[in-house]
Specification:
five-stranded mixed sheet; alpha+beta; 11 helices; 60s Ribosomal Protein L30, Chain: A
């Protein structure tokens, strides 16, 4: 297969430096008859890319570069598994594909860098969260943002059920505590408090394992807020044994298996939205304080130059604004260009990519929350 379906962002492809860098975004549909049009839209987008490449490349080179797109175009199984959006990043060596649980605008471009602003917006941490779906017998973990969520695939062999976690310690049907006897056995239990006490012990042991596992492998590395989704009767016990500082006080009192995707997303957003808005307010306050001390600006030329010189700590980028142009590789100055040129992309996207490569923070905001009207604003590391 000439392409790889991935879930991680940023992926190494954006750091590799191979050209051309082809970026394709497309809204898709999950069900028929709407999704019958997806391959047709895709075909039109790849024709647009081909037209752009013809300005710089020979036909034989274009055919080689576009092979992954042609394979995807003909792959019926691929189009039967679409979600709400599609993103493809391709260079001369590699092609990665994202199946997205959120809509994206149609966009296709060939340039000397990738268009990653939509992916940054989807994967940025400012509104991301994790959901822990927990029952007495098993757990599942999900990650999402305001656009939706998807299940995190745990490492193969990871214990997920009470039986797998407790092994021989699991009292199971609690037959070990029953009296051995004939058909007249009354089913009496010996032990400390009987059957219910044994069930409670097993549940607590299992919850302690889940808490340690999630904290060590997911909460600490990601530092994302964790929402507990469980029947109300299990919330107090899990919170009593939990040492996870990322576990939110407010959870969802429902069986995670009983909720439809839309219901769970809506309930999660009710919890996350105030946290998201508070983060944005804090970032705005930080920018205003930095600007007052000449450590912040929304002047496009200054922001671009600072990004080029690795002086940007945090950059704010307007989500849907496109500014055709590019950054000079020699001086860091803004150069004019057309979006259809094979070496030209969205200037705002190039700024975001530079900051991301230099391990700065990129925050993509809708127009109504954006700082200034140039499309970019930044907090600098130093003057």
């Amino acid at each position: 297969m000439l392409f790889e379906i991935i879930k991680d962002f940023p992926n190494d492809i954006i750091y590799e430096g191979h050209v051309p860098c082809i970026s394709l975004y497309q809204p898709t549909y999950r069900h028929s008859p709407e999704n019958n049009q997806d391959p047709i839209v895709f075909k039109n987008l790849i024709r647009k890319i081909e037209n752009s490449l013809r300005l710089e490349y020979q036909k034989s080179d274009i055919d080689s570069i576009m092979k992954p797109f042609y394979q995807i175009e003909e792959d019926k199984n691929f189009w039967n598994k679409t979600l709400d959006g599609l993103a493809i990043l391709t260079n001369s060596q590699k092609c990665v594909v994202y199946r997205l649980q959120s809509q994206v605008k149609e966009f296709a471009v060939a340039a000397d860098s990738f268009h990653i602003k939509p992916l940054i917006r989807i994967f940025q941490s400012v509104d991301r969260y994790q959901l822990l779906g927990l029952s007495r017998n098993e757990f599942s973990l999900y990650q999402g943002n305001r656009y939706g969520y998807q299940e995190i695939e745990l490492k193969p062999g990871t214990p997920r059920t009470m039986t797998e976690v407790l092994g021989e310690e699991h009292t199971g049907a609690y037959q070990a505590h029953r009296l051995s006897g004939d058909a007249g056995d009354t089913g009496m239990y010996y032990g400390h408090g009987g059957k219910k006490a044994e069930i409670d012990k097993d549940t607590e042991k299992f919850f302690r394992y889940v808490d340690r596992f999630i904290l060590e492998h997911y909460s600490r590395p990601s530092e994302l807020p964790l929402i507990l989704v469980s029947l109300k009767e299990y919330h107090s016990l899990f919170r009593h044994v939990s040492h996870n500082q990322y576990l939110l006080d407010r959870g969802i009192d429902s069986s995670y298996e009983s909720l439809e995707t839309e219901q769970l997303t809506e309930k999660a957003l009710e919890i996350i939205e105030p946290i998201y808005l508070k983060k944005i307010m804090n970032l705005v306050d930080s920018f205003e304080a930095a600007k007052a001390n000449s450590l912040g600006s929304d002047d496009l030329a200054l922001v671009t130059k600072a990004a080029f010189e690795n002086r940007v700590k945090t950059v704010f980028i307007e989500a849907d604004k496109i500014l055709p142009g590019k950054i000079s590789h020699d001086s860091g100055e803004i150069e004019a260009g057309h979006i259809q040129d094979a070496d030209c992309d969205d200037l705002l996207d190039d700024i975001a990519e530079l900051v991301l490569k230099n391990r700065g923070e990129v925050v993509v905001l809708p127009k109504e929350q954006m700082l200034g009207d140039t499309g970019a604003a930044a907090i600098f590391r130093y003057k």
